[in-house]
Design brief:
InterPro entries: RND_pump_MFP. Residues 361-397 are annotated as: Disordered. GO terms for molecular function: efflux transmembrane transporter activity. This protein is α+β, with helices and mostly antiparallel strands and 397 residues long. Helices cover 27% and strands 33% of the residues. The strands form 6 sheets. A 7-stranded antiparallel beta sheet has the order 14-13-17-3-12-16-15, covered by helices on one side. It is rod-shaped, with a radius of gyration of 44 Å.
Length: 397
């Protein structure tokens, strides 16, 4: 029995030791340090002050300066609409008609009321003349004559009122036809035949045939820039997408909204383009050219990345050959370059692969291969592009 007990105890102890070996091995593996980031080759640019015009662009379109929503002055059922979207209309042209049966009946009732008031007035007028003769003969008193005079004047007033109401009803019956006031083009259709519309409900929208405006929206923080550019000759210009010349044309700021749009929170601006034959709805680009600056910092698009929700660049420290992020503010664009603030001339910025670098990472400058300088051996040149692990997403471990 003691011998069997020792054997079983030893086997259990051995099994526990064997089970614990993988755990110890895993713990030992977890304590290994991560390999350091490899030194990547990066393209850099030493900053210098450059000349820039600080140009901004705004999406715009061509609209009519006066655009009217036409509607009926009375309510009723829409019987027909004689124009469609894009129809060119002339002054006096019929656009739509309402069912005028009720209006015609009301006009007939008003005419009957005029006739009744006229008959009553004529009857009281004849009575008043007879009472004048009776008063002269002394058969009635002056008070009775005054009452007859007042009754005649009241009948006369009722007759005038009935005539005025008849004229109103006649106009109401004419209001059942919607007529264009000016020449223009239909830009919107808001009602279809069969609808019952109230007085003032828009039926069609007509853009008047007249001056055109370049309409665009301006963010709140750029309002001072737009006002300053408008006061400077050549500060605002427009480029029409359909223009084959692709040459900006000068425009004049005519109107700038005093309050922001409740949805977009932008301010509507209208500019005038003189001496140009433009069509309604054309797409355009408004160009805002700021004052010329000789101390601007320009960077290629690839140099600016988003780091922690902000625009930033990677600065290279030439002594330690490490990179650190630097937040910048993009204030404009000129061609394929961005104009930024927050940097100074003399700084060295990574222009390619900044989005895959980490703060403090060591890098090497990449220089494209070329013929060796005089007095140097061919092995002194930088490695070829095919042998250089550039800073890209595919080379990250």
């Amino acid at each position: 029995m003691p011998h069997q007990f020792l054997v079983s105890s030893g086997s259990r102890l051995l099994s526990r030791v064997l089970l614990s070996l993988p755990v110890v091995a895993l713990v030992a593996c977890g304590q290994h340090e991560q390999p350091p980031e490899p030194e990547r080759y990066v393209r850099t640019q030493v900053l210098s002050a450059q000349s820039a015009g600080m140009q901004r662009e705004y999406a715009a379109e061509v609209r009519a300066r006066v655009e009217s929503r036409l509607s009926f002055r009375v309510g009723g059922k829409l019987l027909e609409r004689k124009v469609d979207l894009g129809t060119v209309v002339k002054p006096g042209q019929v656009l739509a008609r309402l069912d005028s049966q009720d209006l015609i009946l009301a006009q007939e009732a008003a005419k009957a009321a005029v006739l009744a008031a006229k008959v009553n007035r004529d009857q009281l007028g004849a009575d008043y003349k007879r009472y004048i003769d009776l008063h002269r003969q002394g058969f009635i008193s002056a008070a009775e004559l005054d009452r007859r005079d007042a009754a005649f004047k009241a009948a006369q007033a009722q007759y005038e009122q009935a005539r005025a109401q008849s004229d109103v009803q006649r106009n109401q019956s004419q209001y059942s036809t919607l007529v264009s006031d000016t020449a223009g083009v239909v830009t919107s259709v808001d009602a279809e035949p069969g609808m019952v519309v109230a007085a003032g409900t828009p039926i069609v929208r007509v853009a008047n045939d007249g001056p055109r405006d370049i309409v665009f929206s301006v963010p709140e923080d750029q309002l001072p820039l737009v006002r300053a550019a408008a006061a400077r000759p050549g500060g605002l210009s427009v480029r029409l997408w359909a223009d084959t010349k692709d040459t900006p044309r000068p425009i004049e700021l005519r109107e700038l909204a005093a309050s922001a749009d409740p949805v977009t929170r932008t301010f509507l601006a209208k500019a005038e383009l003189k001496g140009a034959d433009v069509r309604l709805g054309q797409t355009a680009t408004v160009l805002l050219t700021g004052t010329q600056s000789d101390q601007a910092i320009k960077l290629p698009l690839s140099a600016v990345a988003e780091i922690q929700g902000r625009s930033a660049v990677m600065l290279l420290d030439g002594k330690t050959m490490t990179v650190q992020p630097r937040p910048v503010q993009v204030v404009g664009a000129e061609g394929n370059d961005l104009i930024v603030q927050g940097l100074a001339p003399g700084m060295e910025v990574v222009t390619a692969g900044a989005h895959v670098l980490t703060p403090g990472q060591k890098v090497k400058r990449f220089r494209p291969p070329g013929p060796p300088a005089e007095g140097t051996s061919p092995t002194a040149t930088a490695p070829s592009a095919s042998a250089v692990p550039m800073a890209s997403a595919s080379s990250k471990p």
